[in-house]
Automatic annotation (TrEMBL):
Organism: Timema douglasi (Walking stick)
Domain of life: Eukaryota
InterPro entries given in the database record: GH, GH30_C, Glyco_hydro_30, Glyco_hydro_30_TIM-barrel, Glyco_hydro_b
High-level lineage: Eukaryota, Metazoa, Ecdysozoa, Arthropoda, Hexapoda
Protein name: Glucosylceramidase
Glycosyl hydrolase family 30 beta sandwich domain ranges (all copies): 61-119
Length: 165
């Protein structure tokens, strides 16, 4: 979605119960953290790590820049230029197999990396960083401490609740 002019991301509920609530509408939802109050445990889901990754490496004021490829090999990709001048490239594979990718940067050289699993075929992909192509400025990434989040954190022991925070 950031490749389509999104400037930020707010995950509405950071922590919900194993039933996906509570919700005044009675529906269930997913969240980055699932709280199992009965077991006094919480589980970090893949969305937790995606949100953490973006918020750590793509600070507000970063600019979405060009990352070009003829064949991405099924690897989702995006690049940013941070206010400090650092280039951040984020690659995500949903293939069941590990694959490799090459990131080409005319000023910093090439980097070959392994992209961990999720397709039953081996794919190699090459991405060219293009700092001259600039898109939207990033406002930020974060989450909301909704009533549901507070209820779920409060349903656990103080120690477990503090570990979520």
């Amino acid at each position: 979605t950031t490749n389509n002019w999104v400037a930020g991301w707010i995950e509405w509920n950071l922590a919900l119960s194993v039933e996906g609530g509570p919700s005044w509408m009675g529906n269930s939802a997913d969240s980055p953290v699932i709280v199992n109050a009965t077991a006094d445990e919480f589980y970090k889901q893949p969305l937790f790590y995606a949100l953490a990754h973006f918020s750590k490496f793509v600070p507000p004021g970063s600019v979405h820049i060009g990352l070009e490829t003829e064949d991405d090999g099924g690897i989702s990709n995006i690049a940013f230029l941070t206010p400090e001048g650092n280039t951040v490239v984020i690659l995500m594979s949903t293939s069941d197999e590990s694959t490799s990718a090459i990131i080409r940067d005319s000023t910093r050289g090439d980097v070959e990396i392994d992209v961990e699993a999720h397709t039953s075929i081996e794919v190699d992909a090459t991405f060219q960083v293009n700092r001259a192509t600039k898109y939207q400025e990033i406002i930020g990434f974060g989450g909301a401490m909704t009533d549901s989040t507070a209820i779920n954190i409060h349903s656990m022991s103080e120690a477990a609740g503090n570990n979520i925070l």
